[in-house]
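Section 5.1 Outputs to date
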Amino acid sequence: GINAEYGGSWLGTMPWLMVFLIMVLGCDGFGSSCGHDDVAARVPPLKKPGPRLVQVHAIFRHGDRSAIHNPRCFAGDKGVWDCDLSFGSAPLTPPPGVAPGHRAHARSWTAPDHGRVYTKVYRDEDEPMLGNCGRGMLTRRGYNQEIANGAALRRAYVEPGEVGKLLPLELEPSLLSTASDDMPRTIQSAQGVMTGLYPPSLASFENRSQLLVIPILTEDKSQRYMDPNENTCPERGRQQDIARQSGHYKRHLQEVTVPVATELSKFFTHAVVANPNPTPTPIYQGGSLHQRQCHRESQSEDQMVHFVKHIHDCVTTHICHSLPLPKGVGPKMLDRLNREALWHAKHIFTAPTRTENARTGVGFLLKRVLSNLEAGIRDTSLPRLYLYSGHDTSVLAVLMAYRLESILESWVPYASMVLIEVYDMGEGEQAVRLLFNGKPLTLPLCGQSQRELCPLRKFAEFTRRLIPSANEDECKLPGARELQEHHTHPQPHPHPHPRPHPHPRQKQQPVGTRGEGEAHGGKTALGIGLGVMTVLALLLGGMLVRSQQKLHDLQQGRQGDEDRQRLLPGAPDHDDWEATSTKWHGRGAVVPSDL
């Protein structure tokens, strides 16, 4: 704790001062996790001008928010949360015969209530959090962060554009596409980016009955694709459950997670830590998502990891809002907590391999990005700038899928942004450049020779390995896949050598030519033979299942003793998750997702 680390000095009695020092100095990542303030990182132009910018895809995390999991996560928590943002809504009428949200008719929507706007307000006295915030709400600081992101995009891409003349000076909705999770904080973050990209002018309010409507594409929460979704990809949940049974994971729980959780439970008393001796129970093998989640949440090790996740959320949001932490929580403990969260994140996004993980997770987002990208190259009338408003898990999953997570110095900061720029190189060739918070990235998939740009064909080829198949077979549970294969590919005849049908002219022996005993004996022998074959098949099948299970357990329990670092860097199908996380073992280890 603070008193022990500072020899019982006066620092231990001043939690407000400690938070201030963390904000200024950045306590091993927590301060930097708060993101930028009102100035976002500048997008630098190419070092060698010449290629023409034709498209940009921006994947960003929402801005600063209030706490999600525990409104008051420790005894004496008096933090007051201030959320002066809300949603304004009005019933809009699209043009006759036009589907709502159609970009070509965005200017022709009307507001029959003549400018009347409705909003919802959280009553202070009825909220579990002190102040006027609900859980996980975007704060004014978070909204300003996204306005700054939009201003950085305007400086880079709006005419004249330091990077390229991608967009005109005046807003043209048909040249933009904005997508978001169906959550208030991500939708408001998308609005903030748009506001910074094209700041509203007084001319926007001259005609209140004729509105400029900017659609934000979204979907039902159960069908979200901005981050891994077990509801749309059940096999992902089963893969994660298997990964948690590995020897490597169990050892980390015992050696790192248990001590961290035990120490945290001394200060964060309003949260309950599970039994510090995790003993995973057998994996639920059924097809019910609800039962799988209930089974997972009933396990002590899952409860313990979620406790760490909740405290990470509590600490991050308190530090980012300059709210005091419990007396005794010092820099060393915060450092252990931050590294523990990072370890679990790497584990979650690399099991069982990065490629398989992506195909059941972030691949759904990358599939849309690649589809939009390739469609825009074929048809230049399509949008030039695509905005994807998501979460920390969205940004982190993209970075890890392309092996770029080394750029992270801490947890994914609020309002972080990944940019995918597409350039026309001439003669039918295109290239891409990736940036994270204004820093150009070198893609391992393009090899050491990559300078600034990576050929689009290489980028697209690698991305296709990360996205699910057309039928999304990798998302089906094993039983569903086997059933589909059974109907798709008819099984062979049950007899290895079926008796041929007699030729129409071939004389058949009458049934009664043999004695009844002979016929009965033949049937009995046939029955015994089939019974023996069935028993043998069951025995062989059981042996095969057991051998496969032993092999799987061996693979999952291996910690990387064979030194898999000798594998070629960037080989997509040989990136075992335990090998990639070996360097993280013991450094700290649920993904503290915002969801």
